[in-house]
């Protein structure tokens, strides 16, 4: 049974961050930090020591293990050059060698801030240690493609042989996937047509192309590849079926998607929770809430256990038709069924409430959700932006401090929202502190954000401060952002 949602206890915005309620400053947490090397390292890195990260870590006496390094790298994936300083320090410690997983995490972080030269230095180091594998090159191709550096992604595939890692079907699929996910499906199709004799396509190859054409969107071409797959003797698997259902639903052809599901069942492939989540989400978008609920109930009757994606789709459907109380009931149902909400669950509810200008209710949801799941960058960005737009910059800053206390490294968008809010409040000093931190992490600020701070500084006759920031930025990029 879906229970009635009980609203969080009413309180003002200011109570969440009352000093006595800051769990990250509690005695228990300090004890945890004392005996947990991962938490010790994270605390040092978040404190931005003036002596430098390497010196502070040396003085701490911590000796990292591969597992600890991997955990820190995962947590600081948005930290740019700061996390590279840690990675470099760890690699110099006695009796320690970076794992392949650590190298891959660092490569992803560097590519995210477009530090490609350092990234290739790491790849060359991996080559000398015989650590390179297919996944290494797939990561690089993904990152280049995401940055719309298509030729570099293809070049990476073509030089694999020189790095003693001959490309196979898995690498071929990796290249096609990188291109398709970055909206370069036509280039992917061209490469497929050229190389399909060299690499015998499998279900995954065809599924990648079908999904790519679906995102284009080009339904006729997706159908054509689906037919080619069958003609090539490749039987569609559950992934291919799911992709076709998704494409058809997104193009408004739900009835045709239902036919695909019937074909699945005929071929002995029952619908998965992923496919049900697609249908429920689609019905939600189309305001067909009764169909969404019926599909959920049908799924339960068929013995398919609802996962967090299904519940998120149902919550989203209820929000779409402004039935937020029903969405809260679904949230309680998740708790009853031991299905843990995730940041996406939280973000769906927050986005709906913020769009409806229900800031108080959004904050209540935020307070409830942070007790049961970890917020992500989108969660913090939404909350900070909400407070800044409602003129409560102080609460925006408190959310920021809470996020930093949780040792969560802000993303580019989170930085930008906070800096824009401070500029709107004409707090140039605090905005400059965050801008400097952003640049020092190797994150290039967006033009609009940097330009807005520039205007504020010049209006306040603080040209010297702007010149200082511009010089720091020029060390990060070859050309300045502003004239």
UniProtKB/TrEMBL annotation:
PROSITE patterns: PPR (PS51375). Pfam families: PPR (PF01535), PPR_1 (PF12854), PPR_2 (PF13041). Keywords: Repeat. The keyword Repeat applies. InterPro entries: PPR_rpt, TPR-like_helical_dom_sf. SUPFAM superfamilies: TPR-like. Gene3D superfamilies: Tetratricopeptide repeat domain (1.25.40.10). PPR repeats lie at residues 133-167, 168-198, 202-236, 237-271, 272-306, 307-341, 376-410, 411-445. The keyword Lyase does not apply. This is Pentacotripeptide-repeat region of PRORP domain-containing protein. It comes from Lactuca saligna (Willowleaf lettuce).
